[in-house]
Design goal:
The chain is α+β, with helices and mostly antiparallel strands. The chain has a single domain, classed as Alpha-Beta Plaits, CATH 3.30.70. Helices cover 36% and strands 28% of the residues. The protein contains 4 helices and 5 strands, in the order βααββααββ. Strands 1, 2, 3, 4 and 5 form a 5-stranded antiparallel β-sheet that branches. A hairpin with a 2-residue loop joins strand 2 and strand 3. It is globular, with a radius of gyration of 14 Å. The model has no long low-confidence stretch (mean pLDDT 97).
């Protein structure tokens, strides 16, 4: 199992919409997340930033992320969420949410 943390800005005028969307995530989106071996997934908010944490239990992260990205329902979900988000300028090429480095963990 590998842990992932990532960060993105949320547009202030879209924060309540983002919260509303995530209070009722589409069932097929949740199903795809689980099918792609993602567990213990949380998104937190603070001072204009969204912080995402999840655990990945699969064996081929790139393939699972490609599977999720190819899913039509997930693509539609992203279409409604993307206008709420503003990616960090310091993100790596190809990232929307900027991946974070884990610097401490205690089980």
């Amino acid at each position: 199992m590998k842990r992932y943390g990532s960060v993105i800005k949320v547009r202030p005028e879209k924060l309540e919409e983002y919260k509303r969307l995530h209070a009722a995530v589409w069932p097929d989106v949740l199903k795809m997340i689980k099918e792609c071996n993602i567990h213990n997934y949380s998104i937190y908010y603070k001072d204009g930033y969204l912080f995402s944490y999840y655990e990945y239990s699969g064996t081929d992260y790139e393939a699972d992320m490609a599977k999720m990205a190819a899913d039509p329902v997930t693509q539609k979900w992203w279409e409604v969420c993307i206008p709420c988000q503003e990616p960090l300028e310091t993100r790596k090429e190809g990232e929307w949410w900027a991946q974070m480095e884990e610097v401490f963990h205690l089980d």
